[in-house]
């Protein structure tokens, strides 16, 4: 079962869309309720005052996932730094993916991007675990330039998914940038799955690639984590030598 | 409770039950790692690294010792003021080491208050907790008045001559501004603070480098030699007591112990490191300042003497750099102290020493507006007095009491170690270091002006009175 972390800024009233709850029904979900505490305040103080309220909201959210069929629990974190907390929990749980909450109805069409130096084996394994034998059409997307460099990568991935009873089509996109290619392919899809990328100059200057994708779409964006060197031997280790 | 009726009206119904506050201090409910604190209810992320810790320590301290005191200190002790600063550094180090051990054993919010209330019981803890709050208030007021002097001089430098009577109004304006910013601001000021500290350090290295080159005769004309201690040895010690305010800050690092990553390593490094860094800078600064002018001339230049020292070595650019540095440093010290005050207020309110509403947070800004108000209000009152030396000494007095008791708390805990006491850093040279630290801290108080001693003593008696009136039923010793 794929482990998915769903960070939710719980005291700010953020919730999870019904479509995402449905999509993650076959998964092991951890709802990560977080609250960013300004530095004038100790996280302990914030928890003493608002912990109970946050816990109630988290219990409700977790229950939603459970009634959809998922295995679900929650964590609550008070932090000065959201990203640090999400990263720590993802590492602790050895989670397969992290998702934004997004807005979507029932997920019928899923866009899966193989763009970039990502762990293709982990992405397909994750997609298989949530989309196999379900009425979900999967579009596999890769940029043409990359396919030229590594021919057959996307087809092999599509074949593996099809063999596992995933309803899949493979598409290669011709565009100037991987981000545009991905964003252009979004219309008609309800949610996006992509791989975690190593930090690069553009991610430092412009923000994380997945954050930029999330900003350009309204649906949930599920980011499959790169293999962690010191935990778990990822499923069918693949072409990203890390 | 002295007024049984008050409990019924809900004034402070919880102070009696607070003996095991919210279960947060039960060892079974709390697990600590280098990255987070796991409580029964949730997780508290540790986000402040070594740089952040050093920046809190240095940022709090540097404003006073370099930019406000050199002129005043040289006037009282002559070139031997450098020795006064060195004495202060040694005492601060003797306290920083025990404070580090206690901090790694109890990496929780509240710093000195927390250690003393757990090591020596509630009376000592309450007196220290409330004195720490007021001590920080005095220190902030002192930094703000220093800022006022720099603001006046900066205006003069750009051609706007303002009467010295405006020092206090300007200080008040900025004090109010900082308080409001802290209540409403959700920007990440920590990164700004790190930048300010880095900028100040590089500015000082350039300035002091030029000053040393000149003072030892490498460049410029050699300065006339002056008697090292023209007023004898006693003024060296009384000046050390006065300028000790320059070292209030290293223990503020411990107030964020609960938010520090890998506290076992970073807390001792940040506390000891910040004392060593500022101590060296202070001694060199006084040496350079007294080499530039005689100490008599420095004394007449007062709070902003360093500006003229800067002008002496580096011309107008030097004067402007010191003015700019002085403005930044005094504001950064005042701001860091206001932040520490709000944590000090939280720590005593969590334990029921003062009412719980004092640490209430508003969800709109996520800031403790009451605690920040309890910092800002008294700060403005004290700033209005404009008394630099008394403000500085009372601030030192109240901190030194905490430092001394902190050493005593370490001795008490070590003599009869509770099960939970497991510090990852242990004081080298035990028991000499904490014993000397306690003697040094209490000794400093003995050399202050009578007025400061009386005010400090009065405040302590008032806090003890508050304890008797409000918090007598709170029981904390040995609880973690």
Describe the structure.
The complex is a heterodimer of chains A (242) and B (480). Chain A has helices at 18-23, 43-67, 82-93, 120-131, 144-149, 153-163, 178-185, 201-206, 209-216, and strands at residues 3-9, 28-36, 71-79, 97-99, 109-113, 137-143, 167-173, 191-195, 221-224. With 242 residues, chain A is an alpha/beta fold. Chain A folds into two domains: 3-95, Rossmann fold, CATH 3.40.50.620; 109-224, Rossmann fold (3-Layer(aba) Sandwich). Chain A has a nine-stranded mixed beta sheet with strand order 3-2-1-4-9-8-5-6-7, with helices on both faces. Chain A starts with a strand and ends in an 18-residue tail after the last strand. Mean pLDDT of chain A is 86; it is low at 231-242. Chain B is mainly α. Chain B has one domain (4-471): Amino acid/polyamine transporter I. Chain B has 17 helices and three strands. Chain B has helices at 4-8, 50-67, 69-77, 81-105, 112-120, 122-157, 167-184, 189-215, 234-243, 252-255, 263-292, 295-301, 305-350, 369-383, 388-415, 432-446, 450-471; strands at 31-32, 36-38, 43-45. In chain B, strands 1-2-3 form a three-stranded antiparallel beta sheet, with no helix packed on it. In chain B, strand 1 and strand 2 (36-38) form a beta hairpin. At the A-B interface, strand 2, helix 2, strand 3 and helix 3 of A face strand 3 and helix 13 of B. Strand 3 (71-79) of chain A pairs parallel with strand 3 (43-45) of chain B, so a sheet runs across the interface.
């Amino acid at each position: 079962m794929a482990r998915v972390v769903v960070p939710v800024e719980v005291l700010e009233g953020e919730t999870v869309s019904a479509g995402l709850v449905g999509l993650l029904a076959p998964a092991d979900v951890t709802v990560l309720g977080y609250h960013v505490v300004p530095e004038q305040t100790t996280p302990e103080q914030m928890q003493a005052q608002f912990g109970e309220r946050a816990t109630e909201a988290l219990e409700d959210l977790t229950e939603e996932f459970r009634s959809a069929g998922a295995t679900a629990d929650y964590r609550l974190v008070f932090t000065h730094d959201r990203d640090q907390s999400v990263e720590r929990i993802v590492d602790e749980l050895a989670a397969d993916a992290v998702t934004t909450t997004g807005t979507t109805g029932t997920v019928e069409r899923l866009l899966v991007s193989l763009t970039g130096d990502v762990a293709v084996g982990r992405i397909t394994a994750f997609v298989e675990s949530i989309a196999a034998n379900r009425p979900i059409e999967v579009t596999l997307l890769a940029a043409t330039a990359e396919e030229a460099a590594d021919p057959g990568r996307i087809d092999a991935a599509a074949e593996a998914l099809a063999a596992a009873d995933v309803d899949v089509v493979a598409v290669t996109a011709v565009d100037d940038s991987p981000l545009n290619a991905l964003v252009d392919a979004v219309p008609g899809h309800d949610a996006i799955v992509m791989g975690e990328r190593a930090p690069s100059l553009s991610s430092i200057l412009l923000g994380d690639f997945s954050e930029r994708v999330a900003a350009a779409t309204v649906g949930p964006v599920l980011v499959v984590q790169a293999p962690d060197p010191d935990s778990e031997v990822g499923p069918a280790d693949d072409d990203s030598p890390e | 409770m002295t007024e049984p009726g008050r409990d019924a009206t809900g004034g402070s119904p919880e102070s009696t039950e607070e003996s095991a506050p919210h279960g947060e201090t039960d060892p079974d409910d709390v697990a600590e790692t280098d990255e987070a604190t796991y409580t029964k209810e949730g997780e508290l992320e540790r986000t402040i690294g070594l740089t952040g810790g050093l920046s809190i320590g240095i940022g709090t301290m540097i404003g006073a010792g370099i930019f406000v005191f050199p002129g005043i200190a040289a006037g009282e002790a002559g070139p031997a003021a450098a020795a006064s600063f060195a004495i202060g550094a040694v005492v601060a180090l003797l306290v920083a080491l025990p404070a580090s051990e206690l901090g790694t054993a109890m990496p929780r919010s509240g710093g000195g208050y927390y250690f003393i209330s757990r090591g020596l019981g509630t009376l000592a803890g309450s007196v220290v907790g409330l004195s720490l709050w007021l001590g920080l208030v005095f220190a902030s007021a002192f930094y703000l008045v220093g800022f006022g002097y720099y603001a006046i001089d900066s205006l003069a430098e750009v051609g706007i001559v303002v009467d010295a009577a405006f020092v206090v109004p300007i200080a008040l304006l900025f004090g109010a501004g900082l308080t409001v910013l802290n209540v409403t601001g959700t920007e990440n000021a920590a990164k700004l603070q790190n930048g300010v500290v880095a900028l100040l350090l590089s500015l000082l290295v350039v300035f002091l480098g030029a000053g040393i080159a000149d003072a030892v005769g490498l460049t410029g004309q050699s300065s006339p030699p002056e008697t090292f201690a023209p007023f004898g040895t006693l003024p060296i010690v009384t000046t050390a007591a006065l300028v000790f305010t320059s070292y209030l800050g290293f223990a503020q690092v411990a107030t964020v112990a609960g938010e520090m990553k890998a506290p076992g390593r970073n807390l001792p490094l940040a506390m000891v490191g910040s004392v060593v860094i500022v101590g060296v800078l202070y001694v060199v600064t006084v040496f350079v300042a007294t080499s530039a002018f005689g100490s008599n001339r420095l004394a007449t230049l007062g709070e902003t003497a360093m500006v003229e020292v800067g002008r002496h070595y580096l011309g107008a650019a030097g004067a402007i750099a010191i003015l700019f540095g002085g403005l930044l440093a005094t504001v950064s010290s005042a701001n860091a102290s206001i932040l520490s005050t709000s944590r000090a207020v939280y720590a005593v309110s969590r334990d029921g020493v003062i009412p719980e509403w004092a640490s209430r947070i508003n969800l709109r800004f996520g800031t403790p507006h009451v605690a920040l108000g309890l910092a800002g209000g008294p700060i403005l009152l004290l700033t209005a007095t404009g008394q630099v030396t008394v403000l500085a000494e009372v601030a030192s007095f109240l901190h030194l009491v905490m430092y001394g008791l902190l050493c005593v708390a370490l001795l008490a805990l070590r003599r009869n170690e509770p099960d939970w006491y497991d510090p990852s850093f242990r004081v080298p040279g035990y028991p000499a270091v904490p014993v000397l630290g306690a003697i040094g801290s209490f000794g400093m108080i003995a050399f202050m002006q009578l007025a400061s001693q009386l005010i400090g003593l009065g405040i302590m008696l008032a806090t003890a009175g508050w304890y008797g009136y409000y918090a007598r039923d709170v029981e904390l010793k040995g609880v973690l």
